[in-house]
């Protein structure tokens, strides 16, 4: 039966085998169209399959049984052959199977000299006459091939029972694809190995031999990188007259050329096609065809009917990010770089070798090698059939230096003709610019000199004004018409004054400086100055809790910033940080981290002297990581940033303070808080050096954070005055509705709770909750944490209904967050479980306590001591439901750890309650 009829019979078999047996006859009559021969072949296949899958009532186990039988037969044959003599060689162990032959590692046993070889033996159970003919042909072919990269024939003969054998050079190595991946060879080294294979195949073709079964497993690479081509078992000699060989269907389907599948006569083109498949796999790690299923028939249909995927597309198509990364890393490249290198010439070379029509492939292996050599030398490749632009690009790449010199000479000649006129015009423009800049500098100097004259005690009758008074005086002068004749200088000074006022904690978006700066910047026509002014305005709106306005303005600035102009780089970093702050306030978690990651990446491009606190994404990004249970990543990032800052000739005190402060926060969940406290204290000292005794928002933040750290370390008596002072300062410095006041109330209330002042704690937390509800500045996130604390206080005061209302709402809101907070949810579940236990609610299981434990296991902000307390909560539930023994075991294992923690006073009541229940 020819190839086309065989393919059709296989397709019908695959379709009909899925149908009930009683439908086979009807479908055969309908689908075979009166072709009795085809109908007979399909019926025979179906009957053979039915016979193989019946008997003993175990059709589903038949394939496994047959495989086991085959394995047993092979094992028996190997056991029989091991140690036997074959000619002058002794068989040691099987290496595998190739075609119809078993391959053995053997050693010379005649004592002449030591030698290891690969002995190929006929496999039992096949047509001996046909196989012997093939072995004889292979021996004849190998005898005529003498090439350093073809495993050469050493000896041959016939065994005592009449089976032929061949002794071949033994290659101790792995297949070429695995070797390339294991050694992580780049594309150049893979191409070098491939050209070695091509040279060996070309040697065979020159001796009128077609291999017909080229595939990675037939090409081995030894440990020292030597390539050897194996297995000419189905090779054929070419008829010198027709350059063709017979079309026998003996091949590996996945590596067969279309004409082999069609049963047509084979030429050297089948080897060229196979070389294309090999090159495709070496470059991409993939096969060029995507079959609908994994059956041989499906893959054959794909080879015949589908066009191969371009290599540059195959390395990313259908891959996950991690798969594409691993594939590229095996080639010592990034996924993007791998795709770039494959696109173009290598795509064209591979696809030309894989053409369906043999006449459209490379005519010889030499032509394929010539195109690869052209690619490596950056010359045009024939496969591209490039136009003049493509050829010009390759010429320039190949002769970059000569082309560059020639172009430079031509340009120099052309430009030289107009150089004198250009220089004259430039000189005139530079002169005018120098005059303008000199006048602007003089006006700026005059303004500053007049401003600082006011600091002279002789002028102010012995009074020494502070920095804030000087800034106010300068602002008054600029707002009242000073420097109106130079909008660029005036806008720059206004912007500096606005930034300085904000740094001192006294500036606001409504003091007139920003509006006037923007008006003057627009008059000047300086795009950078305009965007800087709008960015500062947006940052001020954000710090005033006017978040929607700030977001709209900053997004406009972000969209208008040029991505390719280095002058705008620092402003792009600052705008990203501002946007992240606003997005965080609006509880837009994904946007918060996205803006921070972008800003942090851009910051790495800034020179060291430009990475000040105003362009520092490290601190807010690290804080974000800490809040989302990634404290270890934050710690690493912060330590690196701090070391880099301290290594500068003139370290920036404020930047060191900010990094130190958040570094302390990254360590706050460790059992020993001494290092965290030290970094927090150091941050406070550094900020005191920067701001002195002046009240400033940055200093207030450090006072608040140091107080929180003291409270976590169970130094509540020291924490209370710090947190009270921070609250008082924020009430003085900020508007009454500002979200930071609510934050201070929350922290102070928690400290009051730790100190045993439940009434005071409740009052502070209720005020914080009311402020957040009124302003909605955080979309309910911090308000939810406050509700949980209020629920805990109500539980301990036995106000069961109030506790239940607060905790149920808190739990609902924590679960609804866009990015669930495992730590806060676990704490709320534990409070809800304790409420149910102490209030006597009817409960059927301990689901809340168990879920709290599960969430806590993945939350880095819950330390070991808090996890121990969650075990106590579960013990209380188990005791309440009758599982006394398990409850006692949990209590005994965790009670000591809970008693040793700083938070024990808050948990003492519940611990005593559980202990009483398990007695």
Automatic annotation (TrEMBL):
Record's keyword terms, sorted: ATP-binding, Kinase, Membrane, Nucleotide-binding, TPR repeat, Transferase, Transmembrane, Transmembrane helix
Domain of life: Bacteria
Start and stop residues of the TPR repeats: 700-733
Binding site residues for ATP: 120
Occurrences of domain Protein kinase (ranges): 89-375
Database matches in Pfam families: Pkinase, TPR_12
TM helices/strands, residue ranges: 399-422
InterPro entries, per database record: Kinase-like_dom_sf (IPR011009), Prot_kinase_dom (IPR000719), Protein_kinase_ATP_BS (IPR017441), Ser/Thr_kinase_AS (IPR008271), TPR-like_helical_dom_sf (IPR011990), TPR_rpt (IPR019734)
GO MF, any single term: kinase activity
PROSITE patterns listed in its UniProt record: PROTEIN_KINASE_ATP, PROTEIN_KINASE_DOM, PROTEIN_KINASE_ST, TPR
PANTHER family, per database record: MITOGEN-ACTIVATED PROTEIN KINASE KINASE KINASE 20-RELATED, SERINE_THREONINE-PROTEIN KINASE YBDM-RELATED
Name of the protein described by the UniProt record: Serine/threonine-protein kinase
Organism: Tahibacter harae
Lineage: Bacteria, Pseudomonadati, Pseudomonadota, Gammaproteobacteria, Lysobacterales
């Amino acid at each position: 039966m020819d190839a086309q009829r065989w393919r059709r019979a296989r397709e019908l078999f695959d379709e009909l085998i899925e149908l009930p047996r009683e439908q086979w006859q009807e479908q055969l009559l309908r689908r075979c169209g009166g072709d009795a021969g085809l109908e007979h072949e399909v019926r025979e296949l179906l009957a053979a399959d039915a016979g193989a899958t019946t008997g003993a009532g175990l059709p589903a186990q038949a394939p496994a049984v047959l495989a086991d039988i085959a394995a047993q037969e092979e094992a028996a044959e190997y056991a029989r052959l091991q140690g036997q003599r074959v000619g002058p060689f002794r068989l040691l162990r099987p290496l595998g199977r190739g075609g119809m032959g078993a391959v053995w590692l053997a050693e010379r046993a005649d004592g002449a000299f030591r030698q290891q070889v690969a002995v190929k033996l006929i496999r039992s159970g096949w047509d001996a006459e046909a196989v012997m003919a093939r072995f004889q042909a292979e021996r004849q072919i190998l005898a005529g091939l003498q090439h350093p990269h073809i495993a050469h024939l050493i000896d041959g003969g016939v065994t005592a029972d009449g089976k032929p054998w061949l002794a071949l050079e033994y290659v101790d190595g792995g297949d070429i694809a695995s070797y390339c991946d294991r050694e992580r060879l780049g594309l150049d080294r893979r191409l070098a190995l491939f050209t070695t294979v091509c040279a060996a195949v070309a040697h065979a073709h020159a001796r009128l031999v077609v291999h017909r079964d080229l595939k990675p497993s037939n090409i081995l690479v030894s440990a020292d990188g030597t390539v050897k081509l194996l297995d000419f078992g189905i090779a054929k000699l070419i008829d010198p007259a027709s350059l063709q060989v017979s079309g026998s269907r003996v091949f590996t389907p996945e590596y067969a050329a279309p004409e082999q599948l069609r049963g047509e006569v084979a030429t050297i083109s089948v080897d060229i096609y196979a070389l294309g498949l090999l090159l495709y796999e070496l470059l991409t790690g993939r096969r060029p065809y995507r079959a609908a299923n994994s059956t041989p028939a499906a893959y054959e249909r794909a080879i015949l009917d589908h066009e191969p995927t371009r290599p540059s597309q195959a390395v990313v198509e259908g891959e996950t990010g991690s798969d594409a990364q691993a594939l590229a890393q095996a080639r010592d490249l990034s996924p993007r770089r791998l795709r770039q290198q494959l696109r173009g010439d290598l795509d064209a070379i591979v696809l030309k070798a894989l053409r369906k029509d043999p006449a459209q492939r490379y005519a010889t292996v030499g032509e394929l090698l010539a195109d690869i050599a052209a690619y490596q030398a950056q010359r045009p490749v024939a496969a591209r059939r490039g136009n003049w632009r493509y050829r010009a690009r390759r010429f320039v790449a190949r002769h970059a230096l000569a082309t560059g010199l020639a172009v430079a000479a031509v340009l120099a000649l052309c430009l030289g003709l107009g150089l004198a006129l250009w220089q004259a015009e430039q000189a005139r423009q530079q002169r005018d610019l120098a005059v303008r800049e000199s006048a602007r500098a003089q006006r700026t100097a005059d303004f500053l000199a007049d401003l600082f004259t006011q600091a002279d005690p002789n002028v102010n009758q012995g009074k020494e004004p502070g920095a804030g008074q000087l800034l106010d005086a300068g602002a008054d002068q600029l707002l009242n018409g000073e420097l109106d004749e130079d909008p660029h200088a005036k806008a720059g000074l206004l912007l500096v004054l606005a930034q300085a006022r904000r740094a001192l904690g006294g500036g606001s978006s409504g003091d007139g400086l920003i509006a006037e700066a923007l008006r003057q910047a627009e008059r000047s026509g300086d795009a950078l100055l305009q965007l800087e002014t709008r960015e500062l305005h947006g940052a001020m709106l954000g710090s005033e809790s006017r978040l929607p306005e700030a977001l709209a303005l900053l997004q406009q600035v972000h969209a208008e910033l040029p991505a390719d102009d280095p002058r705008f780089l620092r402003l792009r970093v600052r705008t990203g940080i501002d946007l992240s702050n606003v997005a965080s306030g609006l509880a837009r978690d994904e946007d918060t981290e996205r803006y921070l990651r972008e800003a942090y990446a851009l910051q790495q491009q800034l020179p060291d002297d430009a990475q000040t606190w105003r362009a520092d994404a490290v601190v807010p990004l690290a804080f974000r990581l800490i809040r989302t249970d990634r404290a270890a990543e934050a710690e690493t990032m912060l330590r690196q940033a701090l070391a880099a800052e301290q290594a500068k000739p003139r370290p920036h005190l404020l930047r060191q303070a900010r990094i130190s402060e958040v570094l302390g926060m990254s360590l706050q969940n460790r059992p020993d808080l001494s290092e965290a406290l030290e970094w927090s204290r150091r941050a406070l000292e550094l900020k005191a050096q920067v701001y002195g005794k002046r009240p400033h928002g940055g200093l207030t933040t450090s006072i608040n954070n140091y107080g929180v750290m003291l409270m976590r370390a169970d130094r509540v008596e020291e924490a209370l005055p710090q947190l009270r002072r921070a609250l008082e300062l924020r009430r003085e410095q900020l508007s009454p509705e500002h979200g930071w006041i609510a934050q201070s109330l929350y922290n102070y209330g928690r400290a009051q709770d730790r100190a045993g002042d439940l009434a005071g704690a409740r009052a502070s937390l209720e005020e914080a909750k009311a402020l957040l509800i009124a302003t909605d500045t955080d979309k309910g996130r911090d308000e939810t944490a406050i509700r949980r604390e209020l629920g805990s206080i109500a539980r301990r005061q036995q106000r069961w209904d109030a506790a239940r209302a607060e905790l149920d709402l808190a739990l609902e809101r924590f679960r609804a967050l866009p990015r669930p907070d495992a730590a806060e949810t676990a704490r709320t579940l534990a409070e809800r479980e304790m409420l149910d236990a102490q209030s006597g609610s009817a409960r059927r299981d301990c689901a809340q306590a168990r879920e709290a434990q599960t969430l806590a296991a993945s939350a880095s902000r819950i330390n070991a001591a808090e996890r121990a307390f969650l075990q106590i909560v579960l013990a209380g539930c188990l005791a309440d439901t009758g599982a006394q023994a398990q409850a006692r075991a949990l209590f005994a294992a965790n009670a000591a750890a809970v008693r040793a923690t700083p938070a024990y006073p808050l948990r003492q009541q519940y611990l005593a309650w559980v202990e009483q229940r398990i007695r």
